[in-house]
Write the structure tokens for this entry.
Amino acid sequence: MVKIGDVNLGAFPLLLAPMEDVSDPPFRALCKAQGCDMMYTEFISVEGLIRDADKSVQKLDIYDYERPIGIQIFGAEHKSMMRAAEIVEEAQPEVLDINYGCPVKKVVCKMAGAGILQDIDRMVKLTDDVVKSTSLPVTVKTRLGWDDNTKYIEEVAERLQDVGIKALSIHGRTRKQMYKGEADWTLIGKIKENPRIHIPIFGNGDIDSPQKAKEYRERYGVDGIMIGRASIGYPWIFREVKHYFETGEILPPPTVKERVDAAKQHLRHSVEWKGLKLGVLEMRRHYTNYFRGFHGIKEYRKRLVTEADPAVIHSILDEIEVVYSGQEALV
């Protein structure tokens, strides 16, 4: 069994990657229902937390049905990270995760996220401070390195383990790559082969099908797989991977009704959590993903992303269900 501290995640857990503007409670509920074993919040600015900023504090919201869950923070200042760890502990997640992987410029330029990959000593000291500031198991999500010349992840894995982290998730790209090119899991596999490493190692990057999940599980020996972009608008990826692991069979894709029901639930929870205006507005980015690959869906999408009344949106979704009943996506 794979454990993070005392948190039992089963034999081979599937994790939902923390994604800004995606992995909020409404989306997490859908992923959990489809078999996700461990989820993480959107990343939370420690500076926002310690200043009690509404947006940052709201991201601490977690619900019992989501457990086990990790709250992820990012920052670069020692005192801020340590205080934020105390605040996170009050929210009572199972895990506190540190983001050392976000490649976005506005995060990196502050030496947070993947920016800290330019200073490994600082990364290790910062992690040590956080571990000592909380009784929660601390985990880290990071990348292979800053660029092709600084792929120090094997050293980083050992040093972070030595200061007390309980699991490490590794995205198989450098910061310079952003999300381009193919994720390279070779170094992730080498870390698993290192006899010094005893904490769980989770691989992340490009897992978009049950077949690839199985191939990478067997080839690189990871303890679990973290899925990010492939789950956006498609939470069924978790049940499909699990079914394939258990049976070797590919499940049929979700029906139009399942897609419509998921979109309705997502919208309902989004409005409940964010309020009517923001809940409807932020839901608009998701409709394309739920119905990707259906011929002629563009016209319905235009209506969905311009409508502000949830009741009317529901009627449009009902229309989609009738029109596309029995059809499968083209991709």
In short: The mean pLDDT is 95.
